[in-house]
Structure prediction request, 472 residues.
Amino acid sequence: MNGFDWNAAGDALPLLLEGFRVTLLATVLGTLVAAVLGLAVAVAGRAPSRLVTLPVRAVTEFVRSTPLLVQLVGAAAVFSSVEPLTVGVVVLGVHYAAYTSEVYRAGIDGVPRGQWEAARALSLPARRTWQAVILPQAVRNVLPALGNYAVSMFKETPFLAVITVQEMVFEARRYGAEHFAYTEAFTLAGLVFLVASYPTSLLMRKLEKRLGH
Amino acid sequence: MTTGVGPLVRFDRVVKRYGDHVVLDELDFTVRRGEHVTLIGPSGSGKTTILRLLMTLEKVSDGVIWVDGSPLSHVRAANGSLKPAGEKQLRESRKKIGMVFQQFNLFPNMKVLQNITEAPVSVLGMDRDEAESRARELLDLVGLAGKTDAHPSQLSGGQQQRVAIARALAMRPEILLLDEVTSALDPELVAGVLDLLSDIARSTDITMLCVTHEMNFARDVSEKVLMFDAGRVVESGTPEKIFSDPEHERTREFLAAVL
Prediction:
């Protein structure tokens, strides 16, 4: 085993950063899907009719009980004509929505009963009660938790390589295979993850403190 | 419609149960239009439940509440019988009634002004400018003219309760329900809020139902006092009568304990 080849590392970096753009894109879009869909699932879970709540619960249970990797491969097989990145973003988003919906649910439960009653005493329609009163308070309370899920998702994007999305770890593997420099390429990829996610985690912790958790 | 004739509010053998626990037991009472009624009695006697039923925050277990000649939480079926109302009718019924809560329940995510304009705009369909200028008038009335852009968390309890009163008045309710509105306030802030409510009672024709432990307020503001115990009206009369010459032993005991 030779020493760490600094030249190879320097050589790999541009390629990895190219992959990192895809990683970031998948994370941002996946987070958006998870944030919006999770909210919809949480609100639907409170619907008065079981015709709504039961299917919603079944789907979220299914998503939570199966591995992300299996979901990715399965979805890529079913939607083989769709671009892999699109499939990856949607699967990531749906997978994480199953978790963010729980976060939203806790946030909604955390809004005091008096807020619902005040809205009702003012005759606010249900839609307006959610929009103007409940969700702004619920979402504010769960922002740090949502942020933490975004960071987790960021670190799980390498799974997308399995369905041929050319994100950073995909590129690292390719470079490693072509130049017999796996150690360098993967170490570098790990460092890029660290540099990107550690400050984000710190930011989330700061946000948590500011919101008084 | 019997507008103007007969009582504005009538409880007709109203029962409220939680499981086996009977909170209100075939309660009958009426409130005339413009009347200011104070409900007194030991805690757990069902006073707050009465307000919550009127605000349709709770459903009656039995009996009917009539407001202005119409059933509050029922609709007439084709055969003339009454059946429980749906959410849409409840929303319609609520518009006549406003409520101020013990814990204020202002919307913390909105500034003071929007707390007051939210319902007039989104429920009454009032134009935003008009709603805002009315909200400013109301804030002036409650002595908080300079606080339009404050967040509720920046206000004292007394100020928050004043905003809550302004918010309820903005919907121009015919009936205002006051649920122990000074109980959560620091003692030095109580008098100001009570003075404000006295002013409103004197200067408007809003019918008020008020649950309070402030006997002076009951004496100064209301024309009728209802003494509750165990879900029933034990005694009712003018404040002079109730406070100086109560008929029932239970009333005497209660007043001796709180005065």
